[in-house]
Amino acid sequence: MKITPMLRQYLEIKEQHQDAILFYRMGDFYEMFFADAVAASKILGITLTSRSSKEAENKIPMCGIPFHAAANYLGKLVKAGHRVAICEQVEDPKQTKGIVRREVVRIVSPGVTTDEQILDAKTNCFVCALVFPRKSKGSSPVGLSFLDASTGNFLVSEVPVRGDDHTALLDMISRINPAEILLSEEHYRQQQPLVADLKGLQEQLCFTLRPEEQFQQASARITLLEHFQTVNLDGFGCAALSSGIRAAGGLLAYIEETQKAALGHVRKLTPINQEGHLVIDESSRRNLELTETLIGGRREGSLLSVLDHTITPMGARLLRQRLLFPLQEQQRIEQRLDGVEELVNDPGGREQLRRLLEEVHDLERLCSRLVLGQGNARDMWAMKVSLAQLPAIRQALEQWRCPLLRAIHSQLDELTDLHQLIGEAIREDAPITLREGRLIREGFHQELDRLIHLLRNDRQLILNLEAKERERTKIAKLKVGYNKVFGYFFEVSRAQSAQIPEDFIRKQTLVNAERFITPELKELEHSIATAQDKRLELEYALFSEIRERIAAQSSRILDTAQQIARIDVLACLAELACQYRYCKPRLNSRAEIRISEGRHPVIERTMESGRFVPNDVRLDQDSCQLMIITGPNMAGKSTVLRQTALIVLLTHIGSFVPATEADICTVDRIFTRVGAMDDLRRGQSTFMVEMNETANILNNATSHSLVILDEIGRGTSTYDGLAIAWAVAEELVTKDQTGIKTMFATHYHELTELAASQERVLNASIAVREWNETIIFLHKLIPEATNRSYGIQVAALAGVPEHVTRRAYEILAQVEQGDFHHHPSIAREKRGANPGPEQPCQLSLFPTGKHPVIGLLEATDPDELTPRQAQEILYEAQRLLRAGDS
Ligand code: ADP
Ligand code: MG
User: Fold this and answer.
1) In angstroms, what is the span from residue 639 Cα to ligand 1's centroid?
2) pTM of the model
3) For ligand 1, is residue 797 a contact (CB within 6 Å)?
């Protein structure tokens, strides 16, 4: 095919951006060609056409979108995981001959966007960069860094790796939940298992491969030092993070490249201090449904959705971060709690404060757009409206005395200078576009005022001149006219043309009249004719200058945004506490958890007020260090477990808690494990996941941890499950002499026997009242064991047909008499489970290496058997033999 100059230009630019869809600006449209057009037309649902140029033998597929509607289309492409390179005309087509120069001015990718249409106001949008150590340098950590270009948040961290186990890394990444991940091509290839796991967590995650050089120590350091204009990175507290710095430098280089702008709003690199935080690993976060529900991944129904009473987007994002990075240090937690308390105690002041916050827009993102040269006049006006609230907010803060609120008060910059600047310069009714004028207020700039005056009064100015010339020439009938050939002219009748002064230049003679021009008239005409263009140009220039002046103050704006976020979160937690009757928890260092009338913050919200049954929970290092909770299905075991974990967690973010009283010790980690929940997203077998997680607890829990185990062992056969549950429970009571605070819900009633030998074990159950054939759930935790499962009653409540449950009662009766199976204790154990088809053989209950038949014999006490049972055991032994053979 023959290549036109335009096509050549397109191909050259496309060559540089092969991994992106290229938006090629042509007049009022962005056009896409070739494969880009095919892909985009599908996602956007727009028509695919083809360019039927005379020279082109093969038709080129293309599609286009109007530039003024680009944001919407762009959003769709990016949400579908694509990168988009936006290529603009960088010359005025009117003033160029031949082809207009074009350049890619911006690249938008899932992680790098400042578009409101793509971003979720309540969540940060991070890109993450990863740098892996060389295999030879076995023990050095993985470096990782996160940057949210829409707010300027820049984080760095390192995570040690042990062999091929990347749990800790996955954990950190999923906590921050980036939209895009950068790594070098080589690492991408080497880390396929990790990549697969990350994709499992978030399907749309976009991986961007970058040149290895950008992650090299020297170049990464230089990128950072140049950006921050410092001589070293000590001031940020990250000098020691060598692979972290490689990740951060590579990341910054990438963002600079995609934004094609200086990133003035990225002001510091913050190390993520893992030690200072309460660690909640990835699966615990999911199990506890902190930010999204386990099923469906919805925000609604998560803890965050119940907590979030914030008003500003900055506040919403901070609350989320606090939830994912709870504190560990008692003093800091108490400071936050005192702040919340003060606001709880002053409903009037809080109300007033929250009303002021309602007028504050997303300062962080507004600021970023201005810094990146993308903000328009409406952004500027939104900034002004927000800044207008600051003095009143600051004044409202004055009345409160606790250290945290005092600190926010003293750090809040009112930014009156910026408020004033925008107020004086920018028109409230300015349009979205920057090239149509009407951006700058009158009175701000002399020359602009002159132009506006000229445009507004063009007719009058001409008429004034007409009057003046009439006066001078004394020709009463002299009048101004206009035509396309000469523009403005003076016209007098032929009779009067003799009176015309010297400086009039004759242009045209008609039958009855003559037409003249004067230099003054032509000058005025020229001024009027060019005024519009000049005005647009000047307004744009003035606007850009103001935008730069504001951008230069971005660090002050971002500091203020941070203070607003802090106060918003405190006020939100106070609001929450008042609305839902939460209490202020006390903190202790006695390793004790004591909750009076605790409730589950999310489940209680789904019920009518007063319907949720509150429960007392106590865990300590003496008599109830491991609580074993039994009770039928649906009694409320999982609920009481989770609510305890959530109350402890809420305390650590500095929130009041759903209880009437709570005394909580600081904990270093919360582990929760839920058995029998198929982890479909990761495609691993249930049991494997369950055991992985259990191993993780046993390896990492300390005497300061809180462990929640919900029916672990369910993923395998009954005996294995019981054996594992028992051994795990035993280990948790005895680990490191002191043991680990644990709540263990189980359907293995045998576990309650552990309390006989271990004094720190407490048996508890959830009370149920029997009533006729059925049962009533009381949802009340009581300190005694139960040995009944009420499985058949629950089945009946669930709607299993009556003849089936009646039959189940018959079978149960047989089992209880030992008729059903070969071994009395097995029969008792089975009572809870559905006595369905044959159980799989329980091979691994016995020590490995031994034949199962030997195990069976060892587990049998012949003196206890009836002849009939002995015969049963022989049959079973034969069955096991055959099973082993096949
Ligand atoms: P289990 O784990 O024992 O099977 P769940 O904790 O899943 O039971 O609770 C089952 C249901 O019972 C919950 O969905 C909730 O509707 C209700 N429930 C649980 N605890 C309470 C409570 N304390 N007060 C009121 N309803 C409760
Ligand atoms: Mg449960």
Assistant:
1) 5
2) 0.81
3) no
